[in-house]
């Protein structure tokens, strides 16, 4: 079972992820991990803290000579902006944050809540997801995230090879697949900044190269679509998750929703085993299992809760009405959120891969991957033979 836990506070000494169940034999690529951390810090609309932090992951355990051991892996990202012990509490909870709920839950101040609830925690979730990508790429599986909407402005993804799409995303300051839209979106973000307001948006993540059968239909808590939804919804400020066509399915008849199944023997040596679909409205998942088509997940991120023009609140000491507190914050972090969601999705797909093909070592997993696909192809060959020549063979 592959899993991870995180620890740390926004302005504490460090953020920590402890990854357990990661297979032995995977070569570490710190450039990939640090590259994802840098991408998380980017994007137009970020606040001043990103100028203070240069996130780098330290791998403290679970590695020998640059290769994973199969034992727990500790990832640490240190905070340059460490000042927690000197920071004062907040008396005026901010609408949209966990300030009020947390202070009532623990019968304590707001500071202990906001420090842990902060999106700074996603730093090490990205590091854990990047580690998972090292495992996925051994099997030709790729997770790719991008922004498809900022506020009211939609940015339709452009079809094309993954390398081409990645190049487009990396050219965009908003991490969309249409850099030409950037000036319009930046003007919108600038206006929100001038108004003391914030903006959210919608993210899409596509996972390609997945085989049949990750996840399961057998138990509700092991369905991969459910696990993906939980992982994505647990990212700070995400308030909606859909897979494939998502909520649009409710508006259409079944004939316009479900993906027809075709077979192309020329593709039987790929992870699809030859089964193709003219559409992918299911988003690669049916009955909690992958169907060999790309997994498609979308997430709706609400606007950041900390406003430069704060909303009404209540002073927790006097219980009198006051405006909410303000601390340094972003105006729009949708680009960073696309990186975060991409990596938490990658981790969940890696978990399902380990569940399906075993997790002690990479060598064992690859052997089981090959065995599964060989057995599946043999099954299809037998059925094809029975259909075309089975009766004659039986009479003989």
What report would you give on this structure?
There is one protein chain. The protein is an alpha+beta fold. The chain has two domains: 321 residues, Chorismate synthase AroC (Chorismate synthase, AroC fold), CATH 3.60.150; 35 residues. Helix content is 35%, strand content 19%. The strands form six sheets. It has a five-stranded antiparallel sheet with strand order 8-7-9-16-11. A hairpin with a 5-residue loop joins strand 1 and strand 2. Helix 1 crosses helix 5 and helix 8 runs antiparallel to helix 9. The longest helix has 34 residues.
CATH superfamily of the largest domain: Chorismate synthase AroC
What helical percentage do the residues reach?
A: 25-40%
Reading the helices and strands in chain order gives: EEHHEEEEHHHEEHHEEHEEEEEEEEHH
* Strand count: 18
Overall structural domain count: 2
Give a topology summary.
Elements: E1 3-8, E2 14-20, H1 30-40, H2 49-52, E3 57-59, E4 63-64, E5 67-68, E6 73-78, H3 99-106, H4 111-117, H5 122-137, E7 142-150, E8 153-154, H6 162-171, H7 182-194, E9 201-208, E10 212-215, H8 224-233, E11 238-243, E12 262-263, E13 275-276, E14 285-286, E15 289-291, E16 295-301, E17 312-314, E18 321-323, H9 334-357, H10 362-395
Antiparallel strand pairs: 1-2, 2-6, 3-6, 4-5, 7-8, 7-9, 9-16, 10-15, 11-16, 12-13, 14-15, 17-18
